[in-house]
Amino acid sequence: MKKKTIIRYGLILIITAVLLYFFLRKVDWHDFIANVTDVNPWFFALLIILAPLHLFTRAFRWRYLIKPEKEHPRFYNLFAGNAVGFTVTLVLPGRLGEIVKPLYLAKKENIRKGFALGTVVVERIFDMLTMCFLLGVFLITRPFSSYTNLSEGTLKTLRFWGVIGMAFALGLLLIVLGLHFFKDRTLRFINFFLRPLPARWRAKIGELMEEFIQGLKFFHSFGNLLIFLGLSLVVWLLMVFYYWIFVLAYKTSVPFTLVFPYVFLTMVGASIPTPGMVGGYDYFSKLGITSLYGIAASKAAGMTLVIHTIQVVMTVLIGYVILMKERLSLFQLRKLGEDVRE
């Protein structure tokens, strides 16, 4: 194994350990089992059934980005690409699934690898854009002002981050529009701010930008941009609905809109490249549950472990079924992703 790879994995393990420490801190294990099992059985069953929902919605949205390269990609391949990609991300460190997902589809649909990689970059940018936009809108409009469990300090903090979220979303949208309609000018503008960075980093960012521009081919009109924004809203609103069911399953009544900041926090935690999202997702989920809903740390930890386990088990189960059908192994996919990353 290369020295650089060893260092990378070592850093990932350290980050995971630190986040797990903060996640497990202040947890009373005597009440843990009681907190985990105290659920509404109907809502809990719905959680399990709806766990793969995001794979379908993401596949449907991805189809529109693939259209410039292939008009009618098979929906199964789009779904399988998402499932296999998430499985690799959940089982292996380093978020290799983000690379495996487009490469899998490129092979199945006989499309260019660079184009497929670009569509995934676009997806992730729009995920951030959409969630920041939703967070900003719902925090600035104060839909939770009647929810008495939130202190005034928490409300002020949420409103502040709502403004930040809106500004970030607007900035991302301007970059997207600029790269599509004013590519050369926007690239010069970005390169100006990248000058202080080392040459290797500038090259990596430049490569990422080229892939992103490749993935923007669908947006040849403002109408297509609105379509994709709408599809991204559907993806994340259904995600928020899923987590709302999760909170209701643990007999905690909260407004639907108050789930937005919680989902945003879990998205931040899930973006940390730890194996199976362990540590990052767990800590930020617990932080959201305790600070937003006034739930004790022990119960919040139990709730987090349950929802994390459901998502990992259901996704990996689907992913392994697809891999068995395709006669592929995780080791083959890991090598594929690492070869491209290198």
Q: Can you describe this structure?
A:
There is one protein chain. The chain has one domain (3-341). It is 77% helix and 0% strand. The chain has 15 helices and no strands. The chain has helices at 3-24, 32-37, 41-50, 53-66, 75-91, 97-109, 113-140, 152-181, 183-194, 199-215, 222-249, 259-270, 280-293, 297-326, 330-341.
Shape: globular
Category from helices, strands and their pairing: mainly alpha
Q: What's the end-to-end separation, in Å?
A: 13 Å
Rg of Cα set = 21 Å
- Uncertain parts: none
Q: What is the H-and-E element order?
A: HHHHHHHHHHHHHHH
Strand element count: 0
Overall domain count: 1
Largest sheet: none
Average of pLDDT: 80
What structural keywords apply?
single chain, 342 residues, mainly alpha, 15 helices, 77% helix, globular
Question: What is the topology?
Answer:
Elements: H1 3-24, H2 32-37, H3 41-50, H4 53-66, H5 75-91, H6 97-109, H7 113-140, H8 152-181, H9 183-194, H10 199-215, H11 222-249, H12 259-270, H13 280-293, H14 297-326, H15 330-341
Helix pairs in contact: 1-13, 3-11, 4-5, 4-11, 5-6, 5-14, 6-7, 6-15, 7-8, 7-10, 7-11, 7-12, 8-9, 9-10, 12-13, 13-14
Please provide a brief summary of the model:
This protein has 342 residues and is mainly alpha-helical.
